[in-house]
Write a structure and sequence with these properties.
Blueprint: H1 2-10, E1 17-20, H2 22-37, E2 48-52, H3 79-86, E3 90-95, H4 129-136, E4 142-146, H5 153-159, E5 162-165, E6 186-190, H6 193-203, E7 231-235, H7 236-239, H8 246-261, E8 265-269, H9 277-292, H10 310-322, H11 325-338, H12 343-367, E9 370-374, H13 389-394, H14 400-405, E10 409-416, E11 422-428, H15 434-444
Parallel strand pairs: 2-3, 2-4, 7-8, 7-9
Antiparallel strand pairs: 1-3, 4-6, 5-6, 5-10, 9-11, 10-11
This protein binds glutamine.
Length: 445
């Protein structure tokens, strides 16, 4: 813990932590030492974990990197946090992110952009940019993120770390500040697949506070050697496009060939909805976000405008002053697609396309062990380089499929670009197939 606290101070310029819980973490560490002496320490005894600032930890601040939650303190802990603490993990602090987890570069935080630990001129990706940069910069062993459309996997790809989004409904969302509830999932970022496996196993499973969590048994996720050769599908459309960086394409194809040479079956498959996935994702998530964010009214939580007189004005001014530009853009887009005249044309239509995407994904996974594709079309870009929101949304082209379909997906470090930045490989697994996905990942690492 002391070493990490030192590292955090040293790399303050990354802007990774919004707050370090030095007092409570030190107290935890001392208590764990006692337990260890008594031979009663938990399975995570002493593991230092940073948490994305949209996950509640009792009696600690949480802001979703938004001004609108300024001064707010959690009155309960997320189920995921409770379970980690029960196994003696140390929660070291809250990590910067895009405001309400909306973004792909971590430039949307009300508390300033986060920098990539590997090169501070570059973004770490988003929205869990603080989580990924903290792991890459050795500022914690494991960081929790949340993944609605790639927010764990994309920053993992940009920082050379491993990022895992379990199946939707594998880990309780209780205590996760909602962005788009039918997509959101908590998951870990780490350097070691064994840490990913252990932390996921401990957080996963039934929870009476979240009815969307599956009651399926959680098996041991400790990586095991493969028992047979793999049958892997790779999506042709993700590689046969001008949209992908040529070096990422070449390295991915090289891996496909290596795996073939090792006797695995690699089968090119077609996924014809590739152009529909980003629009579908943004119609549905902005709709859900506009509804979820209506609770921040200047009355119940955090920030209240000092300029406001009366109830109506309190709502309007607090929200206008409290939310950042990207969040407002999404609330506007979401209320538009849900409005009476446009509901069927946008929201209903997007739900239907979501079903088509889901069905096709499941169809491919019925015949293969997993789907292989790049995590991102490019490496991390320089800070302030992408200004157009649509261009930013297109960063998510390879990651949102797994959220639309609910499948588990992982990003593993694949290579280093000639520009010096890393990039990842993504695997999408079967629903609740975390175990198989982790075994395959361990084999590939
Ligand atoms: N970049 C995506 C978005 O802005 C993903 C966000 C996420 O997964 N939380 O919506």
């Amino acid at each position: 813990l002391n070493k990490y606290l030192e590292n955090i101070k040293e790399r303050d310029g990354l802007n990774a932590y919004l707050e370090v819980f030095e007092a409570s973490a030190t107290k935890q560490a001392i208590a764990i030492d006692e337990k260890r002496k008594a031979g009663k320490a938990g399975r995570l005894a002493g593991m230092v974990i940073g948490i994305k600032d949209n996950i509640c930890y009792k009696n600690h601040k949480v802001s979703a990197a938004s001004k609108i939650l300024e001064g707010f303190e959690s009155v309960f802990s997320a189920t995921a946090i409770e379970r980690l603490i029960a196994e003696d993990a140390i929660i070291v602090g809250r990590l910067n992110c895009d405001e309400f987890a909306m973004g792909s570069s971590n430039e949307n935080s009300a508390y300033g952009s986060v920098k990539n630990a590997l090169n501070e001129d570059y973004v770490p990706g988003g929205s869990s940019g603080g989580s990924a940069t903290a792991v890459a910069g050795n500022l914690c062993t494991v960081a929790l993120g949340s993944d609605t459309g790639g927010s764990i996997r994309q920053p993992a790809s940009y920082t050379g770390t491993i990022g895992f989004k379990p199946t939707y409904g594998r880990i309780s969302r209780y205590g996760l500040i909602a962005y788009a509830s039918s997509f959101d999932q908590i998951g870990p970022v780490a350097n070691d697949i064994k840490d990913i496996a252990l932390v996921t196993e401990i957080m996963a499973g039934k929870d009476e506070y979240d009815s969307t969590v599956s009651s399926k048994e959680v098996p041991s996720l400790t990586p095991q050697p493969l028992k047979s050769k793999l049958k892997i599908a790779y999506i042709k459309e993700t590689l046969d496009t001008d949209g992908i960086d040529p070096e990422i394409k070449a390295r991915t194809e090289q891996l496909v060939n290596c795996l073939r040479a090792d006797g695995h079956d690699l089968i090119p498959v077609s996924f014809s909805y590739i152009e529909q996935i980003v629009p579908t994702y943004y119609v549905l998530t902005t709709a859900e976000a506009s509804s979820n964010l209506s609770r921040f009214d200047g009355v119940h939580f955090g920030y209240r405008s000092k300029a406001a007189k009366g109830v109506e004005e309190t709502y309007v001014k607090s929200r206008s002053e409290g939310f950042g530009e990207e969040v407002k853009r999404r609330i506007m887009a979401g209320t538009f697609v849900l409005s009476q005249g446009y509901y069927d044309a946008y929201y209903t239509k997007a739900q239907k396309v979501r079903r088509l995407i889901q069905d096709r994904t499941l169809e491919i996974l019925n015949q293969h062990d997993c789907i292989l594709l790049p995590t991102t079309p490019s490496t991390a870009f320089e800070l302030n380089a992408v200004k157009d929101p649509i261009n930013m949304y297109l960063q998510d082209i390879y990651t949102v499929q797994a959220n639309l379909s609910g499948n588990p997906a992982i990003s593993l470090p694949l290579g280093k670009h000639s520009n010096g930045m890393p990039f990842g490989l993504q695997l999408i697994g079967k629903h609740f197939g975390e175990k198989e996905l982790i075994d395959i990942s361990a084999y590939l690492m």
